[in-house]
Amino acid sequence: MTLHIETLGQGPDLVMLHGWGLHGGVFERVASHLVSHYCVHLVDLPGHGASSAEASYDGASVADQLAEQFPLPVHVLGWSLGGLVAQYWALRHPQQVKSLALVATSPCFVKKADWPYAQSAQAMEAVGASLDTDFEPTLERFLALQMLGAPTARSTLKALRSQLFAHGRPQGLLPALQLLLDADLRSLVAEISCPVGLFFGERDVITPLAAGQWLAEQLPDATLYSFAQASHAPFLSHEDAFIAKLTHHLDQNA
After folding, report:
1. What is the domain partition of the chain in residue ranges?
2. DSSP letter at 141?
3. Which of helix, strand or coil describes residue 93?
4. Do 164 and 142 touch, CB atoms closer than 8 A?
5. Would you say 102 and 87 are in contact if contact means Cβ atoms under 8 Å apart?
6. Predicted TM-score (pTM) above 0.90
7. Out of 232, 237, 238, 249, which one is annotated catalytic?
8. Any catalytic annotation for residue 58?
9. In the CATH hierarchy, which fold is given to the domain comprising 4-252?
10. Element containing residue 147 per DSSP (H, E)
């Protein structure tokens, strides 16, 4: 499997992992503010952007592949799906992850009897069911859902749409969606020992703020940063505030 990685800047290494349906280019604006102090690696996860697809999508194996690509200790930022992969990475290779920045993500993306802080499995399965017959409109509807509630939703959504196929048409989204349906790391997250910054939008309907609050209570070394008017992509809708809080988190754990 080949991962597409774009590397920018110089300094301590920061690996950035994007959300489902997108690619590393979604972080270009954030990276442009960091490259004078950090060596930023924008990764296309398997089946996304210019990275090759896999028949199955196992969070542990993706984390292992990233560990092979980045053997030296790195800071890791993961958004949504990328945040789930980042949790696997920190659990499986703790010596490689200096700090985590978890953005609008969760240890469990599906509602359960004891876990209300997520979407229903039926809603996520419906996205997968329409990928074969209605690919581009399905992705655009999913992007719109991520912006729901944010005051800058229209402009942020426009920016995301312009990025959607900038690295090519993704070839492996259904296996990655299955990982979001299947994964549940709630019993393991307390084992993540590195410093963790949690960045959550207070209007997020995909990974609610309550999921971030739960993580803040479970993780041994975590700080929660919330964005009052943000939805699922605070790094886009609240760029300046996000960069300020991210920089603070990275500088504290350099």
Report:
1. 4-252
2. H
3. coil
4. no
5. yes
6. yes
7. 232
8. no
9. Rossmann fold (3.40.50)
10. helix 135-147
